[in-house]
């Protein structure tokens, strides 16, 4: 950055580099947890028809309240077993913007947010860009499981740091680890003045019996559950994230959102996809099967995959994770180096993509294993 610009920059942003996984043109891209399956043709047709129908009206601002979309999102969540009303739903351009709205409203200078790392790297970035102080909590303190988080450890850390906002991520990125609801309940109790965010971007990929924090919403007005259409819904390019919370909390978000933040076309695309929810989620089981296959085949190779409730697997026991990342890339397979020494993260793709990764890894394991 030119020094004149650097001098103008907010002091807390100086010297930082921008977030972003490399967007490389490779045969097998398994690095950003996207859904590998293209949007089905009937949904493509529905999206096209709805955007076409809305196009002439683009001279007007969009429905600022996204009422129809929030109603349909509420119905989608309600179908999972917890009744949610449109007044409890907020939508924005990706769950990243949803999180930004939360931090703009409930964080800010003089306030702190606590997360348990390793977790989603955007949580500290969104926190600090809103002038909120980030506090790095720890996972894997008193649990047998790698990267687990116990209610006791979470409680102790929350009591010690007294944050204004707590981030929980379940299933957690990049580890794939789901949290027990006892952890969420314990954190809400241990931090009586904090907003508690549970980022459930990967909820649809959870194994049977893994509960959603949606089931805890009633009677807990400080709890927020965030979701996205970027992963299971195979709609990362459309940018649609949402949350469920108390209606009063939604009201608070109206104070910080830009007017008309969610474009007419974005609302139309999301509604088209939601009109075909079952079809859009058709690939989830296939992806889960590939995830489980990755876990078992990597184990057989002598590597150490972390059990996953998401659409990716973090695996360890690598001598030099960056060297292994490069060797995979040389074979046309792009995975994610998440910065945990000895570990890499791979998204579960189609059976063919997953085979390409596993074949390359089987080749590399003997020389790259710890
Ligand atoms: C991918 C991901 C998101 C999704 O972000 P969008 O802005 O909705 O695309 C949110 N949280 C976590 C933990 C993620 O991994």
What does it look like?
The chain starts with a helix and ends with a helix. It has 13 helices and twelve strands. 38% of the residues lie in helices and 14% in strands. Strand 3, helix 5 and strand 4 (133-138) form a beta-alpha-beta unit. By secondary structure, it is α/β, with parallel strands linked by helices. The chain folds into two domains: 3-30 and 283-368, Aspartate Aminotransferase, domain 1 (Alpha-Beta Complex), CATH 3.90.1150.10; 41-277, Aspartate Aminotransferase, domain 2. Bound molecules: pyridoxal-5'-phosphate. Pyridoxal-5'-phosphate binds at residues 33, 94-96, 120, 169, 173, 199, 201, 228, 230-231, 236, 241.
Summarize the structure.
The chain has 370 residues and is α/β, with parallel strands linked by helices. Helix content is 38%, strand content 14%.
Features:
370 residues, alpha/beta, Aspartate Aminotransferase, domain 1, Aspartate Aminotransferase, domain 2, seven-stranded mixed beta sheet, three-stranded antiparallel beta sheet, 38% helix
Write the layout of secondary structure elements.
Blueprint: H1 3-8, E1 28-29, H2 41-55, H3 67-78, E2 89-92, H4 94-106, E3 112-117, H5 122-129, E4 133-138, H6 151-161, E5 165-169, H7 181-190, E6 195-199, E7 223-228, E8 241-244, H8 247-253, H9 264-274, H10 277-280, H11 284-300, E9 304-305, E10 312-316, H12 321-330, E11 333-334, E12 344-347, H13 351-368
Parallel strand pairs: 1-11, 3-4, 3-5, 5-6, 6-7
Antiparallel strand pairs: 2-8, 7-8, 9-10, 10-12
The structure holds pyridoxal-5'-phosphate (PLP).
